[in-house]
Specification:
Number of strands: 0
Number of helices: 13
Largest sheet: none
Radius of gyration: 19 Å
Distance between the termini: 33 Å
Structural class: mainly alpha
Helix content: over 70%
């Protein structure tokens, strides 16, 4: 998940929306993107023996050639030249790169700790938190039912903290970093593919430096790097690039070809997939208060979606 652009209303790569969107193709692009994000925990489970920082580093490094090739094919290199000439764009992209790297690392950690349900909870909360940030920081007006939805989400967090005896900080870190990522990305006039490429380029020196430091100080394999310690580890970590970049590319084409209201509604596919995998595949115990929180969050999302798409609750 964590590569998903947080603003579903942003058009990809500055391409104008056609008068008659190809909704059928767009639907399948979106289904592919959100479906892959929802299935991503299964891939991360295969590398659960690898330190989360190394996984994130390989996600960064092996995404660069994929995003770079796509930008060349789409002929968007001029956008990159403009971005590199703008200190403001570079500074904002550095900030979003930091936010998304924290989000990636924490999500990988949830899989390794067998608490993928916290990841699902965080990504369910994220849309509501994004809406609240828009209201607080941008002065966007919300309907009464939308405020009620945010209240239900807050109640879910309170129940987990008080009745459940465990503050859901992991879910909130995921939701907050991704909501802030979306908020700041909206302030930068650059398409999602070019932005993703810039973020990975900015993170690349840190990722490469970390891998070189661990490799030199601790060696390959054992307590050091998993990469090159075996054929399976090498292949899996190489796959971090496609697993990160392909859903983003599918999302960009989906946003170009389908209605934004439908695209926004489909975003719940990803956390639903994570939720089902957590309880049905990873056998995470369905604790009472955790499930109660999920019910409240689902109710909040249903209320918010109904208000947003029906015009009710002015």
């Amino acid at each position: 998940m964590s590569t998903q652009p947080a603003d579903p209303t942003a058009l990809p790569d500055s391409i104008d929306r056609p008068d008659e969107p190809n909704a059928r193709n767009g639907f399948f692009y979106a289904l592919g993107a959100y479906g892959l994000w929802g299935l991503f925990p299964l891939f991360l489970k295969l590398v659960e023996h690898v330190h989360p920082a190394e996984v994130v580093a390989h996600r960064v490094l092996w995404s660069i050639p994929i995003a770079g090739i796509l930008i060349i094919l789409l002929r968007r290199t001029a956008d990159l030249k403009r971005a590199f000439a703008s200190p403001r764009i570079l500074a904002m992209m550095a900030l979003t790169a930091a936010l998304v790297s924290v989000n990636w690392g924490v999500f990988v950690w949830t899989i390794q700790l067998n608490i993928a349900s916290q990841g699902a909870l965080g990504y369910y909360i994220n849309p509501l938190l994004s809406v609240m940030l828009g209201a607080i920081l941008l002065g966007e007006k919300l309907k009464r039912l939308q405020w009620a939805a945010i209240g239900l989400a807050a109640l879910a967090v309170l129940l987990l903290a008080v009745a459940g005896g465990r503050f859901p900080w992991i879910a909130l870190v995921l939701a907050t970093t991704f909501a802030l990522y979306g908020f700041f990305r909206k302030t930068v006039n650059i398409g999602p593919t070019q932005g993703f490429f810039l973020e990975t380029i900015i993170l690349a020196p840190v990722a490469l430096g970390y891998l070189l430091w661990v490799g030199n100080s601790q060696g390959i394999g054992g307590n050091g790097l998993a990469f090159a310690s075996s054929t399976s580890n090498t292949l899996l970590l190489l796959c971090c690039g496609p697993a990160t970049a392909i859903p983003l590319i599918l999302y960009a084409f989906a946003a170009k070809n389908m209605r934004l209201s439908t695209l926004g509604l489909m975003q719940y596919i990803a956390p639903t997939g994570i939720f089902l995998i957590a309880f049905l595949v990873f056998d995470e115990p369905p604790e009472f208060w955790t499930m109660t929180a999920f019910v409240l969050i689902w109710s909040a999302l249903a209320l918010y979606s109904w208000s947003a798409f029906s015009g009710a609750g002015e």
